[in-house]
Amino acid sequence: MAERRAKIIWNSLTTIAIFAASMKFVTSFVKYYVSNLSEESFELIFSSEIPWNWKEPIGYLVAGCVQFTWFYGGIYIVICTMLCFVGFCTLFEAFTLDIGRNLLDLNDNIVEAHGHFKSERRIELYQQFSKIIQFHSIARDFVDRFSTAYSLILLIFFGLATTCICASLLSLNSAFDAQHFVDILRLVIYLFFMTTYIAFLCYFGDEVHTRFETINYSIYQCCWYEFPLEMQKLQITMLNVAQKPVYVRGYMNTRCTRDVLQTIINAAFSYFSILRGVSQ
Question: Measured between alpha carbons, how far is 52 from 41 in angstroms, rounded to an integer?
């Protein structure tokens, strides 16, 4: 399942990025030959200093290949970062599924005993419950450590996403006014790429939170009244630990949830509306 997710994400985002970057490269050559070999038809994939004359076919071809390599390398790093994030989130989900199954098996064993526990069986169930609690604590701590490692990356991505979506909307508004349909298509693809990227981060982060909340619900739903007394004490310990919600988060308590995705998009549209009003 995780491998299939990774392939879908990699293929879709890579295709979108390459298509968006190559559009300006191809349309520049089309404009060059349509406009009677005008050197002003050439446009770089992104603005940068080129130490040679790139406003002629051979120079532009070399500059385009160099810029495309840089662009693809940056996209490769960004997508690999996201795939790493998705892989760890899938691992956390597997942890919660394992904990849920173990809790269900423990609950079934206790219900089948009908309150009659031999000493050996009581010790066995106590050890089984202790291992579940230990694994639950380790899984929560693993998520916290991962959030600490990714906190700066998430904060940068969320900040860049808000800025890029806002800037793209402003450029898209100008492209609509000028009726530059190629630029409109390129900007729409870029907006889709940025929104999809952040949506993946928020979706998988929110799935981790939801799965841990499901574990908490399973703890509450256990037949605790049939547990031996020493196991009831252990359950109280597990409930106290489970009260603190688990989030994949960045700096400034930026959580990877669907609500944060909506907040980012709303903020980008708000900034776009303010800047468009000022420019007019």
Answer: 17
